[in-house]
Please model this.
Amino acid sequence: MNFSETLATLPTADHLRGLDIVDATGAVVHHIPAAPGKMGSLRLYHALAERFGGALNADAVAQGIAWFAEHVADARARPGAHPNIDLLLDAQTPGKGWRLVPLAA
Model:
């Protein structure tokens, strides 16, 4: 499935104002706002939070990369162009104990 097809299967994120990725101390290390151009990523990360109990572990990372589908190749070719994918591609991410925290609107 491509990214658009995958998005059609994921729960909506219209009820969120964003999603924070926090470290073990609760500090925000990354934020995805509910903003134009970011809603697909917000929806995907929200689905990861639901599926993996808020943990950004190895399984969640692998699922996120699969869901981002065709956009992953572009992210690898252009580091920094897709920060929400770059975070998943960082080999260190699964071991950092980060949590996905959806923010209600």
